[in-house]
């Protein structure tokens, strides 16, 4: 299914589709491991479809959190020094 069609679905529908696709990915991997999978491209297609659904859900999550912000900056800019885990460059 194309991403355009997935964006038209509700979040509940996408969650159900995510569960279904995750099961399909698992089944395809298991069948491939036991040499019972005839069409090995179906595993790759299912993984891509699952990734599309997860991407759209993540986009909606970030969009809803961005709309919920107060508009007073990003909220975390400059907090913590911004140089965690990096070596000093002096």
Tell me about this structure.
This protein is 61% helix and 0% strand. The protein is an all-alpha fold and 90 residues long. The protein has a single domain, classed as Helix Hairpins (Orthogonal Bundle), CATH 1.10.287. α2 runs antiparallel to α3. It is elongated and about 50 Å long. 4% of the residues are buried.
Helix and strand topology:
Blueprint: H1 3-7, H2 11-33, H3 41-67
What is this structure, in a nutshell?
By secondary structure, the chain is mainly α. The protein has three helices and no strands. The protein is 61% helix and 0% strand.
* Computed Rg: 20 Å
The biggest beta sheet is recorded as: none
Beta-strand content estimate: under 5%
Give the SSE order as H and E letters. Answer: HHH
Kindly state the percentage of residues in helix: 55-70%
How many distinct helices? 3
CATH class: Mainly Alpha
Low-confidence stretches: none
CATH architecture: Orthogonal Bundle
Principal-axes shape call: elongated
Q: How many domains?
A: 1
Number of strands: 0
Structural class: mainly alpha
Mean pLDDT comes to 84
Between the first and last Cα atoms, what is the distance in angstroms?
52 Å
